[in-house]
Design goal:
rod-shaped, 89 residues, 2 strands, mainly alpha
């Protein structure tokens, strides 16, 4: 993708608030995963839901970076297939 439009010289970039929206979506996904882990712990162990939730957060922390793997990445749409674009471009 070109950095600027060849006709009007408009700079192509993400819209204002793009990353804020991504944070909201990531936060929502994290809450769903933590709730599922807490429910599983509560059902298996019989702990109070507060204790199960705290342990769910502790168990979720190592998984948190994996959520960012599903986020947007720069893509090179030219050519025959979708390939991640090099970071230097």
């Amino acid at each position: 993708m070109c950095e600027r439009c060849s006709v009007c010289d408009l700079k192509f970039q993400r819209e204002e608030g793009y990353f804020l929206g991504a944070m909201y979506i990531s936060f929502g996904l994290a809450l769903v995963v933590i709730a599922l882990i807490a429910a599983l712990l509560w059902a298996i162990t019989g702990w109070w839901i507060t204790r199960a939730t705290i342990w769910a957060v502790v168990l979720f922390l190592p998984l948190a970076p994996a959520i960012s793997l599903f986020g947007p990445r720069p893509m090179d749409l030219s050519g025959s297939g979708l390939r991640p674009r090099a970071a230097s471009q």
